[in-house]
Amino acid sequence: MANKSVDVCVLGAGIVGLSLALKLQERGREVVLVDRAQPGAATSFGNAGLIERSTVFPYAFPRDFKTLLAYALGQRTAAHYHWRALPFLLPWMWRYWQHSSPMLYPHAIAGALPLIEHSWREHQPLIAAAGAQGLVNARGWIKVFRTQESANESLAMAEQSRAYGVTAHALSAAELLAKEPALLNVVLGGVHYPDARQIQDPQALSTAYLRLFEQRGGRFVQGDARSLQAEVLGWSVQTEAGRLIAPQTVLALGPWGEDMARQLGYRLPMGRKRGYHMHFRASGASLQHTIVDVENGYAIAPMGRGLRLTTGAEFALRDSPPTPVQLERIEPKARGLTHLGERLDNKPWLGSRPCTPDMLPLVGPAPLHPGLWFSFGHAHHGLTQAASSGRLLAEMMCGEAPYTDPRPYRVERFGA
User: Fold this and answer.
1) 141 in any annotated domain
2) Is 324 a member of any domain?
3) Between the chain's N and C termini, which has fewer beta carbons within 10 Å?
């Protein structure tokens, strides 16, 4: 493929890049995917597998002193801080805190809503075309609470969600155990969100999307995005098969997107939340729903490999050595909630979520470079928003009227 020319080069073959590539193919574009790793093997590999129509409220930074102090003192398992990383993270965290204010947070909700509302609608035809329906668990997920204070907060959030078209069913302790018999009787109740879909093997979904992409005539090649260069007729990147040239190129590099943007002169206030998971054998009755323990900040998801226990957020530098202290702290709590057998993984998996301070992804043209586009910063919702943001960017790249206003996701909002 020496000096091969195509319509679009998508740099990054995670679920965001794969979904975008498929949406571009639907519009007749010849696309090549480029990644230095195998498709779906990085951040896309390790989530709880939720295509989350129900989470219309982005994850805000805590604003009350009591909660902030509890996190600072390590009294909450939902977050963990690398103190040596804080000098590098504080500028982003400060802006994140500002955007979580009562004045600005509604903008995050309004911006996220179209991508959330269209999440399953855009994934569903891709999953069907890829023959991956067997990966889908359509039972939704359940938030459980252990204290009355948490119950009040969870039920209030459920009521607020209904105003955005979300289905939410409050469950008493007895109703919860009837719906999910694998739970132990240690909680007060829960809220069932049935609209979400859970993918029981996110890596298999990426593989299915790649297979569909290739069946449609696309090609995946390994290459390093750092070799990207501006050319007279567009952009070029070096791959294992030779130099690839395209008039349009997309940075869909997840937590590495900021590095490439900085190399090109963009200063983006990006942060990263790292997360861990471990698989366990089901001991006795196995969960049928993904369960979120709201007080302790973790989720347990039924996967093809076993029960996947996922942590909350670790605030650290992306490439720092793993420190899975959250996983060690939540495992006993999870064992008190359901039947966990032995660990199935040799070591915890670690991934990094790319996060903007206003909780919205970067989806749109690079303002200083014609033919260059951004699609990263999806934070906790990369799988959820991959197909809906992919459709939006494909429409912009192909000169179509976008299905929703693209301005909330523009790069220029950060003065880049």
Assistant:
1) no
2) no
3) N
